[in-house]
Design a protein that fits this description.
2 copies of one chain form a homodimer. Chain A is of the alpha/beta class. Chain A contains 13 helices and 14 strands.
């Protein structure tokens, strides 16, 4: 049977995530070192704390940990999230909060509730692939805005908006990852955050602020003052703020949340009812217990130290092995290093050399909505050990030299030179 | 701010689930007895087995239990599901299997991958509300087919199909719950199942077979031969089969699955990537361990005995208290008893009397796509204890007498009489 005629228009446009594909490749290979998936380090997981929480909950026959629960989220967890939000300078009420089955579900629900086919959504160039697919799956038209060294470029934003308005197009929302963006690791400056709010008010669009990495700043180059959410200054109610426990606790418990004006949350909750009824009860129970007992708070400093050490290891190795041919903005937090390739080098070609050398990354094109990105790659330093990072960068350096050699033989490049990635204005 | 202008067309049509609303009411009230939500009995949960599994997994630092995992599902679980399917007479391969975040997510993904706005989907009258909302949220046009005492009415199916074809409409799929349907508890007869496959082939539509209750037959009136899935005889590849561990283990682990032709599963998997990346790793790990260690197999006989006892308690109390005014098809498995009200009595009015008497049910209209159902209610006997079932039916009987008295005072009914529920042909 041929099922083509049964697929919806949305399904016909659905593409497999390039990152997930790479992730699968990484999980299969023998002695592959993968910088591809944005997986946290399992050494950071609070194993013993989870064991104690689960043992107590099962012993107490905590029915709320195994039964269906409210779509809005497990009551005590929703309350506790209010505390996290307050610490991030975002006062919120329970009717402005929705627990989601990971932050990805939040993006999916937002897409379904706010986007009709053909609607214009603004995104950064490059941006998180999961957002691209969530919004593309409801047939949005994604329009990219370039970034500078401190995040989204306001001049380009103005130009893009002017172009769209001239064409009679309405913008539904701007999607941004202000803190240690996936994939670039960039941080949007404080003034820019306020300017985005002003632009949203001026042109009547919403802002979807995705903040999974805000707690993971590297204290040698950033601090909590740098990560103040856009939502903290949202007096008008234009910002939908998303966050997650995937990076601060574990991703295998699928628990994220969003905070937004109550009228939006009410609709998103109805959409969630039909999407999965409710988020996993055991997952929510464990997360709440971690919040209550201080486990979550204790993770912050531990994770910041762990990932800072790994990023330093990667940067050190990169400078030593590849400093003359690659360039990258210094990651100030998060999981990722975003590297520009030598002029003329295609990330897809480099990836073939890298696979031959048993190292993986994600090619830049996965993150662009305008077809750019062939001259960039995303490296995640979060999961591998320091020793594996060093070994992986050495392999990558060999792969880059292989690719450069091939290029030179083809006359495609005269010696190595550093160029900017398309879409990065500086 | 007014957010109305930001909502998508899909969002504008989204309605809160009547059952979830009732569920919330039930969880708030003091000494309410709720027959409303289809929640399993927490006394059936394998608490100690879960405790042992979690303790072992955390102690062994099982990274796959807390990390991101494959969108398709945790490998060992996908393999094990193949065994469950074989026992249900459905040979399946791993590329025909997708683990979902509860069976509800399967319905949601199917809606997104197979339905464009305005597409015709056939459903039973009445049918599961979660399917109604999942398909309505992608703007399907749901068309109802009546049921008889052994499930969907083939004559009405033919008539509905003929009417649609005459109007030039194409049917995408038929959604059915063949085993102990939610809400009616009905079982589709063996011959009818084969006839549905023939109809699907003749008119070129797919069948979405939802089977969460098949294991929960009551051995005094049904057996495994009665629950053989439609998919077991699907030689053409027209059936998408869904099932779940929510009723056989616990609902708080959000783990369901679907089996379908590989080409459909590939597309559903891509849709799932953007919906929630992957199903919870800890949930899948626990479910798999329950399968491996025989916990799941041991649940079957326990659950059948438990729910049979509860259904007998409810039927016994109903016959004693309400046998002269209500009628219902005998549930042969599952969680639900579907009762027809006396002529002229409106379920919504009865519900007000019931709430005053501190007992809850779900009104019939929640399950109909054609506006019918005012003369019926769904009672779930799964969660309350036998004592609470008896007490709840006594309260319900008082409420019915209250409602009958009010009706008689209005001259709306001359004594009680039993009538069929709209949509039930027998």
């Amino acid at each position: 049977m041929n099922y083509q005629s049964f697929f919806s228009r949305a399904a016909s446009g659905m593409q497999e995530s390039a990152i997930r594909k790479m992730g699968m490749l990484g999980s299969r290979g023998s002695d592959l070192i993968s910088f591809a998936p944005g997986y946290p380090d399992p050494a950071s997981f609070p194993w013993d704390e989870f064991a104690a929480i689960a043992a107590d909950g099962f012993k107490a026959r905590e029915a709320s940990a195994l039964q269906y629960g409210p779509t809005r989220g497990y009551g005590p967890l929703v309350e506790a999230i209010g505390g996290v939000m307050a610490a991030r300078h975002i006062p919120s009420k329970t009717d402005e909060t929705l627990v989601t089955t990971g932050s990805q579900q939040g993006l999916d629900l937002i897409g379904r509730v706010l986007i009709d086919p053909g609607d214009v959504i603004l995104v950064e160039l490059p941006t998180y692939t999961g957002a691209i697919t969530a919004f593309t799956n409801v047939q949005a038209q994604l329009v990219g805005v370039r970034q500078g060294s401190d995040g989204i470029d306001l001049d380009d934003l103005d130009a893009v908006i002017a172009g769209l308005r001239a064409a009679g197009r309405r913008i539904r929302f701007l999607y941004v990852v202000p803190n240690f963006q996936n994939p670039t690791g960039l941080l949007i400056g404080r003034e820019k955050r306020l300017a985005l709010l002003a632009a949203a008010a001026r042109h009547d669009f919403l802002i979807v602020e995705d903040d999974p990495y805000g707690e993971l700043y590297f204290s040698d180059v950033a601090g909590p003052a740098d990560t103040r959410p856009i939502k903290a200054d949202d007096s008008e109610g234009r910002v939908i703020y998303l966050s997650s426990f995937s990076k601060t606790l574990v991703p295998g418990l699928r628990v994220g949340w969003l905070v937004a004006p109550a009228a939006l949350v009410a609709k998103l909750e109805i959409a969630k009812q039909a999407a999965d009824i409710c988020t996993g009860a055991l997952d929510q129970y464990i997360v709440w217990q971690c919040m209550k007992s201080g486990v979550l708070d204790a993770q912050g400093p531990r994770l910041r130290a762990l990932y800072q050490q790994k990023r330093l290891a990667m940067e050190h190795a990169m400078r030593r092995e590849l400093g003359d041919v690659l360039s990258w903005p210094e990651p100030r937090g998060g999981f990722f290093l975003w590297a520009s390739l030598p002029s003329g080098m295609d990330a897809e070609v480099l990836l073939e050399h890298a696979i031959a050398r048993r190292v993986l990354f994600v090619i830049g094109t996965a993150f662009y909505v305008d077809g750019a990105g062939r001259g960039a790659m995303r490296l995640s330093f979060a999961q591998p050990s320091v020793a594996r990072i060093e070994e992986g960068v050495e392999r990558l350096a060999t792969a880059v030299r292989d690719a450069l050699g091939a290029l030179e033989r083809q006359g495609g490049v005269k010696g190595a030179s550093i160029v900017s990635v398309p879409g990065m204005t500086s």
